[in-house]
Amino acid sequence: MKRLFSLLPLLVLALAAEAQPVKLRFVANGCTDTMLYVARHYRDEVHLLDSARLDAKGCLFAGQRPWGRGIYALVRQDHKTVLTDFLIDDSRSFTIKGDAKLSAASIKVKGSAANQLMYDYRATEEAARREADSLQKAGAPLDALAARMNAYEAQARQRGKDNLYLQLIDLCEPSMVPDSIADKALYYRLHYWDPLFDAQPKGIGTELLYSPQLFDKMNVFFFGMLYRADADTIVKDLDRLMQRIGPDTAMARYVLQFLEPRYYRSTRNIGWDAVWCHIAWEYILKGRCPWMRESEVYLARQNYDRISKSIIGAHGQELWMLDTTQIDAPEHWHSSHRQPARYVILWFWDPDCHHCQEQSAELKVLYDSLQTAPDRRFEVYAVGYDSDVEKWKRYVKEHDFRWVNVGGPNVNVDYQEAYNVHGAPTMIILNERRDIIMNKVLPIKSLLPFLSNYEKRSKGVKE
After folding, report:
1. pLDDT tens digits, residue range 208-238?
2. DSSP letter string over 179-233?
3. CA 12 to CA 195: how far, in whole Å?
4. What does the alpha-carbon distance between residue 272 and residue 278 come to, in Å, rounded to a whole number?
5. What is the rounded CA–CA span in Å between residue 317 and residue 310?
6. What is the DSSP letter of 284?
7. 14, 229, 325, 379: which could form a disulfide with 339 (CB 3.0–4.6 Å)?
8. Does 11 score more than 50 pLDDT?
9. pLDDT at 460
10. Quick one: which of 299, 306, 262, 323 has its CA closest to 422?
11. What contacts 291, CB < 8 A, 6 or more positions away?
């Protein structure tokens, strides 16, 4: 997992622990660095806390440090490479020694049984993965390996009942699905967070927030399991999680700051802008993010007011614009909504834009091929996104665009504001109620399949 690094002190994540003496020595035989850092995980970031010189005797972090219990990282001087994670638990005085990369299998620990158990566990897992890969390539069964690993894990947990690393792993493991459950995928999703809230050991608090395990669990759920889910499903799962978090402001901040930038104006998946709007409306603008500055809330409100108008499900604003005659007379004004077709494709394009030219040419081929078709379901309302009206008019005439061509400065509303148009081409598809059903540019070859799939999904729903 890629991590971001920060050279700033961990002020925003202020550690609650009081300064206590530590004596941590790290020996990486063969490592050519001259400086190593102790850092702490937070979401996909690693924040550097302290540095020490590395020589033949290793590097030593000694003295008073406000480092409480948890998982920490030892980072190389390039600020990009984590040599290893380590625990600060019962012991605050230990030595970790290994090869140049501090690989788990090479590490020997003095003074911390908790750290030694963690490295042994990791080394055993890594060896098991390599063995599983070999067995799979050879077409051999994995049953014996699985049984051996189950026995090892049971033994490790017996040895380290209070081992912080194993506790965090258990917390971030999803729930087991009973054999009696019919819809196993749904059960798995609905109970994914149960271990985190139902079986949390006493004393586990900030250690979870500053662990890489929590970030990976979040990432798997929202951008693995829910990657193809619609916005309504994502929103419901988000709200369920936030309800379980309750008054825990630190955890709420962790989750919302993890999700909000990833859904904001994302171009990856259809409908993700609606997820961002939900986060903004329900959590930021309703005062449920007390850590946010007033200026950040103000910006969120501005963005919400702009983006929410063009999300899927919103009612599209009616546009009235002049055609290529640019004659201000009733017969030359055209409405985006008062078209006889079931669907309207709002096509905001620029004749100087190469991509617009290519896409418009493909759209013309499809449109013209359906001119005499009895089931042509859509009309194209093409808005010339160019201040040079004469250039736009020439291009329309030369390329014989036969759909509804409108443009120029005369328009009843600011369409850039109404449909969040900030570049060309932009495609918005309206249904017969003129609600937005798509707000991203689809490949032209996907238009008819999209409309057919939409009709299948809406079958039985009153339009």
Report:
1. 999 999 999 999 999 999 998 999 999 999 9
2. TT-S-HHHHHHHTTTHHHHHSPPTT-SHHHHT-HHHHHHHHHIIIIITTT--HHH
3. 28
4. 10
5. 9
6. I
7. 379
8. no
9. 54
10. 306
11. 249, 253
Residues 286-295 have pLDDT tens digits of 999 999 999 9
Structural tokens at position 278: 């939900």
pLDDT tens-place string over residues 89-104 = 888 999 999 999 999 9
Q: How far apart are CA 261 and CA 264, in angstroms?
A: 5
Calculate mean pLDDT across residues 380-408. 94
For residue 174, give both structure tokens. Answer: 């999803």
Q: Where are the domains of the chain?
A: 4-127, 226-311, 320-458
- What's the pLDDT score for residue 10? 41
Query: Do you know the residue count of the chain?
Result: 463
320-458 carries CATH number 3.40.30.10: yes
CA pair distance 156, 345, nearest whole angstrom = 61
Say how far residue 442 (Cα) sits from the centre of its chain.
22
Whether residue 49 contacts residue 10, with contact meaning beta carbons closer than 8 Å, is answered with: yes
Per residue in 415-448, pLDDT tens? 999 998 988 999 999 999 999 999 989 999 999 9
Residue 196 one-letter amino acid: L
- Cα separation, 377 vs 438, in Å, equals 15
Alpha helices in 409-446 (DSSP H): 415-418
Q: List beta partners, residue 20.
A: 65
Residue 14 banded pLDDT, cuts 50, 70, 90: very low
DSSP string, 329-354: SGGGEEESS--SSSEEEEEEE-TT-H
Cβ pair 181, 136 in contact under 8 A: no
Assess contact for 263 and 280: CB atoms under 8 A: no
| Cα distance between residue 44 and residue 54, in whole Å | 26
Which class in CATH covers the domain with range 4-127?
Answer: mainly beta
pLDDT-derived band at 267, boundaries 50, 70, 90: low
